[in-house]
Design a protein that fits this description.
The chain is an alpha/beta fold and 224 residues long. It has one domain: Rossmann fold (3-Layer(aba) Sandwich). 37% of the residues lie in helices and 19% in strands. A six-stranded parallel beta sheet has the order 3-2-1-4-5-8, sandwiched between helices. The protein has a two-stranded antiparallel ribbon with strand order 6-7. Strands 9-10 form a two-stranded parallel ribbon. Helix 4 (82-89) links the parallel strand 4 (72-75) and strand 5 (98-101). Helix 1 (11-23) crosses helix 2 (35-50) and helix 4 (82-89) runs parallel beside helix 5. The structure holds NADP nicotinamide-adenine-dinucleotide phosphate. NADP nicotinamide-adenine-dinucleotide phosphate binds at residues 7, 9-13, 32-34, 37, 76-79, 81, 85, 102-104, 143-144, 146-148.
Length: 224
């Protein structure tokens, strides 16, 4: 499969790109608003893998160019820009492809506590993004609770679950499958897109726990 990380130059994009490139044979592409930045990040990820003895090609370029022909498109961009980002690549999205949103809206108060902050018109960023998805292209929510820096550290075992939500059963199964191909990650079907608000709400809980407790960083979830 061809997996494109839109905004794959950032934290979660880097982590997912490295893990998929390291653990699977899927074609990994890094998109950026600035094509050269996408190319540079792709080269950086190739170098990281080659330093570990793995010869791997990672393609990089502009978001639009990297979307053409992609089977899976991960919107690894800040939540507030997600709809504009979808619009900027819509005419490059093939029918039959799947969009994944890991985005979580967060707000921090003056005391440093984090809260869920979905767009005003929606209960969750995932549903907000799904409304902007082109007709016939399912949007699935996944990876909301994964700590990006743990993903990027290929020496660190993951041992996390990711909760996957969506209304298209077939697309959700494909996302579950490609998530399970990452070593140490288990994808769990967590219901419909309408359940995404609850899942996005876990992220500020994890961040607040991290801030309040020494030696509790890079937290995630495991369903037992
Ligand atoms: N960080 C985490 O641990 C984590 C965990 C789970 C979920 N998430 C979610 O994943 C998404 C990305 O998080 P992140 O931490 O990777 O973010 P980030 O590093 O701040 O940004 C990711 C990329 O988004 C692009 N970007 C920045 N501003 C943009 C804009 N105005 N329009 C379009 N693209 C823009 C940039 O790529 P270019 O400049 O190359 O275009 C940037 O490298 C967020 O929605 C977040 O809620 C993050």
């Amino acid at each position: 499969m061809i997996i494109t990380l839109i905004g794959g130059t950032g934290d979660i994009g880097e982590g997912l790109a490295l893990r998929w490139a390291h653990d699977t044979a899927h074609e990994i592409r890094i998109g950026s608003r600035d094509p050269q930045k996408g190319i540079d990040s792709a080269k950086k990820y190739e170098l990281e893998l080659s330093n570990r003895g793995q010869k791997r090609t990672v393609l990089g370029g502009g978001n639009h160019e990297m979307t053409i022909g992609a089977d899976i498109i991960v919107l690894s961009v800040p939540p507030y820009y997600i709809v504009d980002t979808i619009k900027s690549i819509t005419d490059a999205i093939s029918p039959g492809s799947i969009i994944i949103s890991p985005a979580v809206g967060l707000k921090r108060d003056d005391d440093g506590n984090f809260y869920s902050s979905p767009p005003p018109s929606s209960r969750s960023v995932t549903e907000y993004a799904a409304n902007a998805s082109p007709d016939g292209v399912p949007l699935i929510g996944a990876f909301h609770t994964l700590p990006a820096h743990r993903l990027s550290d290929l020496d660190a075992p993951l041992n996390f679950d990711t909760l996957v939500v969506g209304d298209d059963a077939e697309a959700k199964q494909i996302v579950i499958q490609i998530s399970n191909e990452i070593n140490g990650l288990r994808a769990v079907d967590a219901g419909a897109l309408a359940n995404s608000a609850e899942i996005e709400g876990i992220t500020p809980v994890l961040i607040n726990i991290s801030k309040s407790n020494k030696d509790m960083d890079e937290l995630g979830v495991e369903i037992k």
